[in-house]
Structures are given as structure tokens and as C-alpha cells.
Design goal:
- This protein is mainly β.
- The chain is 13% helix and 35% strand.
- The protein folds into seven domains: 1-26 and 157-248, no CATH class; 37-81, no CATH class; 87-153, no CATH class; 251-497, no CATH class; 521-593, no CATH class; 601-686, Immunoglobulin-like (Sandwich); 694-786, Immunoglobulin-like (Sandwich), CATH 2.60.40.
- Strand 36 and strand 37 (613-614) form a beta hairpin.
- The longest helix has 13 residues, at 2-14.
- It is flat.
- It starts with a helix and ends in a 9-residue tail after the last strand.
Length: 813
């Protein structure tokens, strides 16, 4: 009777609770559905003491903690109303916030809003209701279901037994290890012994018994002082927060690194991580560890962590959960999204029994601990078909001790490493095992029909039932009485032992590689027997390289005779390959020395020019440039050339026309002794004119070109007796490409003002000429002075009279 009762509990709790959650509850008064002020207005206060009605309350500590974390809020009137009942929608909202089940079904809600319809099959949840997203997320995660009439009754108060049942869907129980055997009397005793401690045991319906026991034993739901549990009593806001606070425990809902860098922190109770990007280090957890669906496909790292309770992994992706130097006991992988979750064990990590209910990758890397001790693969029931197990794939990479497959809808892929003991329970009929190359299963125990395929090896198989198919290489297969199996495509009815057939000796006498000084010979092919290798010019026998080779077949032998000289026959190395069956084949490498390959122009000079002009040689670009003086005739320049080759064309001493060489360089080709050539491009530039002389230099119309010398410090002097109307400066350079600048008393005179520029006594005029080359300058300086009169001679009838300075002369008619 107890076994039957246990089966009912397991079925109702884990398979059909979506219906049981919907047992009638007291409804909230009023017909309109609106978001409670505490949730609708997100009335979070950072100061928990601001609420007027929580001081001295039995749940004051828990309420303050949740308010501080912004997981619960109060009402605008400053109250929290801890003893008010909480509705199903409100309770689901708190659960979603705590475990990170937010925005799990936004696409569903948005679609319903766009269509103006209700949410899925729940006709009492409109897409515009404040709780639509929360209800959808709860359903998506799998802990909430609807009523048979197509409603979910979000405004109904939630009872204590319904809350316990929700937790049973989310949290692993401390007796989860017993779920491997649903017929175990231990489960019944475990439940009965706990219920016996409750005074109202008779009022607890069978469907909620296991959930209530789990809640009580888990320490997050307690009975009342009179020893009762009151399963149908509506749970209050304070009770909801207190229960969630105890169930969640220490919550990490922000990315970051937590825990000391040295020493070990102790966390009493449970720990919950509901967001990606969390690293927990150097910490011991006395309760359970929950990695929730809120992690999504993100990463969580446990480094130096010990978990004394159960670890439930419901979130993560294909590169997510990292266990470094970490010790965990029982582990449950059960992601509601059925997203593939990867667990990577590194360092001294030890993992107890791990149960995979949804797709998982278990990988060991650089491991010094025991890693994954035991793996049990037991898919959860499909959400679309009651009683049907969902198909899952589990991938393993590492050295695993024990792996047990308990359901038929399992595909196990051993990608790397080995499994010491792989067992298939009787309920795993049709399970599929794939073994990658170079993987091994030491012992396979098959209590059901299954298929093993791939390139890995099964050392020993014990087949206890018909229908075992081993397509992968199998060494030994033992059959129970009357059992037959299929091994390597053949049906066997008695024990099987693989005998490796004798192989013929190989005739392969080919090389897989032929190397000279460690580098594969250019153009090497196993079927090509002879090779020529040219050494650089000037090489001697001391420069002969080392020939090495590698046989293509593992059992072929290679003998090499190195070359000892540079002339035949000593310049040939031989490689003798002897196949396993004695067949021989010889490869040869002949060494020769290259002819002189020097072909550089070392000197390019125009000796006939004055001064002599030497070209600049750029060996890297193979170009030569030369600049000849201004005015040089470049139509027939004769270069004198020196080079290291055996010939050059055009030859040295032959006149060449370099007129257009700036755009079309003259080409010279040097030929080396080995016949190779080098081509040089020669460009000749003509220097710019450096002429700074003046063709014309006039001041006030007077020619001063002959007076003014170029670049004299003192310059020349122009004496002027009468400055009346004396004006104008005229300048013209001999080279029309030169430029001239005129300054008068240090001020530049614009070109257009030169012809009208007035000239006064003591004016200093400087003409600066800049040559075409932009570098050469000539300066012409002229100072204008008045004519000095020292005496005047007057001639009249009486003769000539001279009047000296400072004298006066009176004249009369």
C-alpha cells in the first residue's frame, strides 16, 4: 500500500501539479483586476524603517532584508501590511524576482497584447494585466499551471500547501537521492515520519504531502505553535517573504566577485544565484546552492567553494558553469528552458552524484581532484505529453567512474576520455550511446536493449537482455543465459572475444617526408625518387646540409648515407627504405653549387663633367640618381660604370640621352655568371639655376647697376643734387626665373609701387635676388645722399668771384 501511495505522490507532485495548484482557493473581492499599489507603483524604499507597521513584527528581519534588496515594496501610505493575504499573482511575482525568473515569456505577452487576446489558454489573464508577464514566466519555468476550466485565478489567495508545492517544483529536496528508486520504502517512511509531527496531518491531502514535507525538512516553512501546518490557510505577505527568504537564503542578483581572496567564508543556509557574471570564491555553504534560470546562457564560476547541501542548476548555457577547486555533493541539472548547460570541472574539484534531467555537457580539464564521481541521466517528463520523458543529449569529456542511464529517451555522447562503468537500467530501453574516436568504456552493463556506436572501444560488455547492439569496436561481450546480442553486425548467442586478425606484412617502402636541415624538400612526393638541391655560390663541402627522412609506414626502416663532397659521386645522399616485408626503395638527393650570382652596379660616374658627378645607388630599389650642374647638356652624357657581373648593357663609356630620364629612366641590365640578371633604372636631374645678377637696376632713372656690387656690406652710394621730383626704382633680374625683393629703409616696396616710389636723401635701397634654385641669394645695397656744395663761383663783367662756405656776396646792378 505504501509503494502505491508513493507512486501517487511522485506522479502528482512532479507530473500533474499544474492541475493540483489550481485547487479552489478563496477569491479576492471585486471584479476589476489591477496591480496592487505595492507592486504597481514599485514603491521600493531604501530605508526599511520607513514602513509604519513592521516594527516588532515576527517577520521584521526578513521583510527589511527583502525591502533592502528591492525584492518587495510597501504601499504609498507608508505601510507594508505584513498580515494581509497575498494573491497567487503577487506570490508568483515575488518568486520570479527572487529566482530571476523575469522576462521569461515577453514574446508571448507581446504577441497577446498585439492580438488583444488573453494569455495563452488562460482566459482570465489578459495581456494587459500587470501580472501577465509574471504568470507567463512562471508557466515557462514550469512551476505554475492552470485550472481545468482554462483559468489560473491570479487574484485568488494562495494557500500554504500551494506555496509549498511551488517550492517543490523549484527546489530540490534533501531526499532527491531517493528519487532514483520510486519503489523505495524509504521515501514513504521519510514522508510519514515527518507528517506524524504535525497535529493536523489528517487535513493534509495526499497531493501536497511530499511538498509540505520537503518545505518543513528544508527549513523554509514551519508549523504553528500548536504543532499544526494549516495547509489550506491563506499565506500572508509576511509569511511569503519569510518563506522565500529562508528558501532563497543568501541571494546574489548582481554580477561580481563574492567571497574572500584569502581564508574561507561560512554561509549558513541556502545560497541563490539568479544572474550571470557571478563568481563565488573561498566559501562554504551549509545549505543548498541554487543556480537559477535567471542566469540565462551566462556564466557562473565557483572557485574554492564547498556546498554541503544539494546544488541545483537551472540556468546556464553551452559555456557556463565553471567549477574550480570546488567540492559539491549531490547536483541536479534541470533547466526549464531545456537549454544545453555545460559544467567544467577543473583543479581539485570533486562532484558527488550528478543527476542530469535536461541536456548537459560535463567536461573535465586539468583536473587533480576526482571530478564527476557518478552521473545519473534521468530526463524529466515532457511538458507537452504527460508521463512521457523528454529526449535529452548528454555529452561527456573526461575520465568518469560511474555513469547510469535510467530512461529510454537518452543519447549519451562520450566525446573524450573514458567511462569506467556504464550501466543501462531496465527503463532505458533504446538509449543510444555514441563513442568518439580514442574513447573507451571499460565496462558496459546492459539491463535493457540499447545501441552503442562510434569509433571508441568497449572493453567489456555484460548483456542481460536481448536487443543489445554494439557497432563500436568491442573486446569482450558476456551474455546472460538465453540472451543474444549483435556485435559488429553479427548476431552472437554466446560469449564473444575479439581476436585481432593477422595482417600481411606491409610492402610500403615509401617516405612520408624528406628533409634538408629540417625543412621538407621543395616538391617532395613519396613517389618521386630523385631530387637536386643547389647550394649557394661559394659553398664548400663543409657547408653540405644534413638529410633526414621519415618512413610512411610505422614498421618500415630508413637508412641514410650523407653526401661527403661537391663532385660526383660524393655529392649525392641516399635514403634506403626497407618495408616490413623486405621490399626496398632508394631516394637520392644530389647537391650542386650555384654559379656566381653577383650582379650589382657598384659605381656610376660622369667623369667628363666639371665637377665630376657621381650617381647615388639604391641597391634595394635598384635605382641610380644623379644631379648635374645647371646648363649641362644631358643629351649625350657618358657614364663610367663598375659592376660585379660578367657584363652590362648598355656598356660603360657609351653616351646616353638622359633628357627624359625623370619620367623614362635609362635602363641598365647587369648579367651574373649564373645567367641571372639585375635591372637598374638611371635618372639624371639638372640642377636649378643659381644666377642672382641684375640685368637692370635704376634709381630715379639713374643706372646704378655698375655701382652696386653684390653682397657687399657697405654697398654703393648715389649722390643726388636735386631731390625735386626724384622718384622710381627699376629692377630686372638676369635670370627670368629668379625673383627680386626691394626694401626702402627696411620696408618692402610692393612691385606695383616701385615706379612711383619717391626717393629722399639718405634713403637706403636694398634689392635681394633669390635664384631659381631657391637657395642662392644676392643682395644689392645703394644709399642715396645729397650733393655737398662747398663754394659758389659767380662770373660777371668784372670777372669770376668765388664765395666760400660761410661767406656772403652782395651784388648791385
Amino acid at each position: 500500500m505504501k509503494k502505491k501511495r508513493l507512486r501517487h505522490i511522485s506522479l502528482l507532485l512532479f507530473c500533474t501539479f499544474v492541475i493540483n495548484l489550481c485547487l479552489p482557493c478563496l477569491s479576492v473581492r471585486g471584479e476589476t483586476i489591477s496591480l496592487p499599489e505595492s507592486l504597481a507603483e514599485e514603491h521600493f524604499l531604501t530605508e526599511p524603517d520607513s514602513f509604519s507597521d513592521i516594527a516588532g513584527h515576527w517577520a521584521e528581519k526578513e521583510i527589511k532584508a527583502w525591502i533592502a534588496r528591492e525584492l518587495a515594496g510597501g504601499y504609498p501610505d507608508g505601510s507594508f501590511r505584513p498580515d494581509s493575504p497575498i494573491t497567487r499573482a503577487e506570490f508568483v511575482t515575488l518568486v520570479n524576482r527572487a529566482f530571476g525568473y523575469t522576462n521569461m515569456a515577453d514574446n508571448i505577452v507581446e504577441t497577446a497584447r498585439g492580438e488583444g487576446t488573453s494569455l495563452g489558454t488562460y482566459r482570465d489573464v489578459a495581456a494587459t494585466d500587470w501580472y501577465a508577464g509574471e504568470i507567463a514566466s512562471a508557466v515557462a519555468v514550469g512551476y505554475l499551471g492552470g485550472y481545468p476550466d482554462g483559468t489560473v485565478k491570479p487574484q485568488n489567495q494562495i494557500t500554504r500547501q500551494e506555496a509549498a508545492a511551488i517550492f517543490a517544483r523549484i527546489l530540490p529536496t534533501n531526499n532527491d537521492v531517493l528519487t532514483y528508486d520510486n519503489d523505495s520504502n524509504d521515501n514513504v517512511d521519510y514522508i510519514d515520519n515527518t507528517l506524524a509531527q504535525l497535529t493536523d496531518q489528517a487535513q493534509i491531502p495526499e497531493w501536497s504531502e511530499a511538498a509540505i514535507v520537503a518545505a518543513v525538512k528544508g527549513g523554509y516553512m514551519n508549523g504553528y505553535p500548536d504543532g499544526s501546518f494549516q495547509p489550506t490557510k491563506a499565506i500572508t505577505r509576511a509569511e511569503a517573504v519569510a518563506v522565500l527568504e529562508r528558501a532563497v537564503g543568501q541571494l546574489y542578483n548582481r554580477a561580481g566577485t563574492y567571497g574572500p581572496f584569502q581564508g574561507t567564508a561560512l554561509l549558513e543556509g541556502n545560497v541563490t544565484v539568479n544572474t550571470p557574471g557571478v563568481t563565488l570564491q573561498n566559501t562554504t555553504i551549509t545549505g543548498n546552492l541554487y543556480l537559477t534560470e535567471g542566469i540565462g546562457a551566462g556564466d557562473v564560476t565557483l572557485n574554492g567553494v564547498t556546498v554541503q547541501g544539494i546544488t541545483k542548476i537551472a540556468g546556464g548555457g553551452s559555456d557556463s558553469i565553471h567549477l574550480r577547486n570546488t567540492t559539491v555533493g549531490a547536483v541536479l541539472v534541470n533547466a526549464p528552458s531545456r537549454r544545453l548547460v555545460r559544467l567544467l570541472a577543473q583543479g581539485s574539484t570533486d562532484v558527488g552524484t550528478l543527476e542530469a534531467r535536461t541536456p548537459a555537457i560535463l567536461e573535465e580539464d586539468e583536473l587533480t581532484g576526482d571530478g564527476f564521481t557518478k552521473v545519473v541521466i534521468k530526463p524529466q517528463e515532457s511538458s507537452s505529453s504527460q508521463g512521457t520523458k523528454a529526449a535529452i543529449t548528454v555529452e561527456l569529456a573526461g575520465e568518469f567512474n560511474d555513469v547510469e542511464i535510467q530512461e529510454a529517451t537518452v543519447q549519451l555522447n562520450l566525446q573524450k576520455g573514458s567511462i569506467a562503468n556504464l550501466s543501462l537500467s531496465s527503463s532505458a530501453q533504446g538509449a543510444q550511446i555514441n563513442l568518439a574516436a580514442q574513447t573507451t568504456v571499460q565496462t558496459l552493463l546492459a539491463d535493457t536493449a540499447a545501441t552503442v556506436q562510434g569509433q571508441g572501444t568497449v572493453e567489456t560488455t555484460q548483456a542481460n537482455v536481448d536487443g543489445v547492439v554494439i557497432e563500436a569496436p568491442a573486446k569482450k561481450v558476456f551474455l546472460a543465459d538465453g540472451v543474444q546480442a549483435n556485435v559488429a553486425g553479427k548476431t552472437i548467442t554466446e560469449d564473444y572475444k575479439y581476436v585481432e586478425p593477422k595482417k600481411k606484412k606491409s610492402r610500403d617502402a615509401a617516405l612520408s617526408d624528406l628533409m634538408i636541415d629540417g625543412i621538407t624538400v621543395a616538391g617532395f612526393a613519396p613517389e618521386t625518387m630523385s631530387y637536386d638541391f643547389v647550394l649557394p655560390y661559394g659553398s664548400t663541402k663543409d657547408d653540405l646540409p644534413l638529410v633526414t627522412a621519415k618512413a610512411r609506414h610505422a614498421k618500415a626502416r630508413v637508412e641514410i648515407t650523407q653526401a661527403t663532397g661537391l663532385t660526383a659521386p660524393d655529392n649525392t645522399a641516399t635514403v634506403l627504405v626497407t618495408a616490413e616485408n623486405g621490399k626496398t626503395q632508394t631516394y637520392t638527393v644530389r647537391f650542386t653549387v650555384a654559379e656566381n650570382s653577383a650582379k650589382a652596379i657598384t659605381s656610376f660616374v660622369f667623369m667628363d663633367l666639371d665637377p665630376v658627378v657621381t650617381g647615388d645607388i639604391n641597391e634595394g630599389t635598384k635605382t641610380i640618381t644623379a644631379t648635374v650642374p645647371y646648363g649641362t647638356d644631358v643629351t649625350a652624357l657618358v657614364p663610367t660604370i663598375e659592376h660585379t657581373g660578367v657584363s652590362i648593357f648598355p656598356e660603360s663609356g657609351i653616351a646616353q640621352n638622359f633628357t627624359d630620364s625623370a619620367t623614362n629612366p635609362v635602363i641598365y641590365t647587369v648579367t651574373a655568371a649564373d645567367g641571372s640578371t639585375a635591372t637598374y633604372e638611371v635618372t639624371v636631374y639638372i640642377a636649378l639655376n643659381d644666377e642672382v645678377s641684375l640685368r637692370t637696376f635704376k634709381i630715379g632713372g639713374q643706372d646704378v647697376k655698375e655701382l652696386a656690387g653684390v653682397n657687399t656690406e657697405e654697398g654703393a652710394t648715389l649722390a643726388v643734387s636735386d631731390f625735386t621730383g626724384f622718384h622710381g626704382i627699376e629692377v630686372e633680374t638676369t635670370d627670368p626665373n629668379a625673383s627680386a625683393t626691394v626694401t626702402l629703409n627696411g620696408t618692402v616696396v610692393p612691385e606695383e609701387a616701385l615706379s612711383t616710389q619717391p626717393i629722399a636723401a639718405d634713403d637706403v635701397i636694398i634689392v635681394t635676388v633669390t635664384a631659381e634654385d631657391g637657395e642662392t641669394e644676392g643682395q644689392y645695397k645703394v644709399t642715396v645722399v645729397p650733393v655737398l656744395v662747398t663754394a659758389i663761383t659767380v662770373t660777371g663783367a668784372g670777372g669770376a668771384t668765388t664765395v666760400e662756405k660761410d661767406q656772403s656776396l652782395q651784388m648791385s646792378a
